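Board notes (copied after class):
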Amino acid sequence: MLRTLIVDDEPLARQEMRRLLSAHPDLEIVGEAETAAEAVSAIERLHPQLVFLDIDLGFGNGFDVLAALPEPPVVVFVTAYAEYAVEAFAVDAVDYLLKPVDPARLAESLTRVRRQLAVAESARNGATVIELKTPKRSLLVPPDEIVALRAEDDFTRVFVADQSSVLIWRTLGHFESRLPSPPFQRLSRSLIINRDRLKDIESVSRSATRIRLEGLVEPLLLGRTAATRLRDVLANEGRPVSP
């Protein structure tokens, strides 16, 4: 069960969140809090894994709560104010829900929460994870869920399986030094792929090759040099290579 705390200064809002969360039987609501001080006390006493946290709490706010905790739990902000989203993700909130909360959007948020908790647990057990930190959010991702990485000026766009890509203010070389090779293969100055996720290779012209990778909807286009390098690597591994 996912131990959950609801923090909101409006009783009706807490009641509505309870109603919405009742559709998710793997959640256990261990308590509620109305003020920032009550929230800090409840978190220290109840040790929830997940907190649905309002921003405007009358006396104090949700950011005060997180600042008072040395190791805050996973947080999803729930608020009527869209303008705090950047600040919320800057403190590593997993998600940001606007009131009135849409049930489908809540389900999506809980999927993110469960995944983040699972990755964090793997990291505590010694598994390798890669932190993808942006101005809006931080993701902990197992290397095998990274499909490809592409340099974009001083940034790197990281393609994570079945998720939106993430633009990170790090060079491609930074990731190349941290990712295992194999399966990660640098094909050019601007592209690294996870060879374990390669599905097929298709020549579209003398100078262009299209590759499809598991976890990406759209294929990637390779130039002649990158395609040749990929074919050479696969041939050396004894893997079949399409013409």
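Comment from the instructor: The mean pLDDT is 87. Helices lie at 11-21, 36-46, 62-67, 85-90, 103-124, 172-178, 224-236.
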